[in-house]
Amino acid sequence: MFRIIMAALVALPVLGAAPSLAADNCYAVGQQLAAQRGAQLASAEAVAGGKCKVVLLIPGSNGQRPRREEIIVNG
């Protein structure tokens, strides 16, 4: 019983860090996409299947408001 509890305590930090690492990776992917497209990164989040949902704001032309573009990419 003691071994099971200790194994669970050791695994908690590792399991808890996974979503944070995925979110950091998605943010980096989003920043790269924004730089390539001359856009502003609005949000980036991890979704199922190791993918990232990235929302970019593409500058409008002739003083129009920015266009919102949502992209699903591999994280």
What does this 3D model show about the protein?
- This protein has one helix at 2-37; strands at residues 40-47, 51-58, 67-74.
- With 75 residues, it is of the alpha+beta class.
- It has one domain.
- The chain has a three-stranded antiparallel β-sheet with strand order 1-2-3, with helices on one face.
- A hairpin with a 3-residue loop joins β1 (40-47) and β2 (51-58).
- Residues 5-17 have low confidence and may be disordered.
- Keywords: Signal.
- Residues 1-22 form the signal peptide.
Short description:
The chain is 48% helix and 32% strand.
Largest beta sheet, briefly? 3 strands, antiparallel
Instruction: Identify low-pLDDT runs.
Output: 5-17
Shape: elongated
Quick one: how many beta strands? 3
Report the sheet-strand fraction.
25-35%
Order of helices and strands: HEEE
State the distance separating the first and last CA atoms: 38 Å
Radius of gyration: 18 Å
Q: What is the residue-averaged pLDDT?
A: 82
Going across the major beta sheet, what is the strand order?
A: 1-2-3
Integer tally of domains:
1
Question: What structural class do helix, strand and pairing data support?
Answer: alpha+beta
- Share of helical residues: 40-55%
For the structure shown, list the relevant keywords:
single chain, 75 residues, alpha+beta, three-stranded antiparallel β-sheet, 1 helix, 32% strand, elongated, signal
Compile the SSE list and pairings.
Blueprint: H1 2-37, E1 40-47, E2 51-58, E3 67-74
Antiparallel strand pairs: 1-2, 2-3
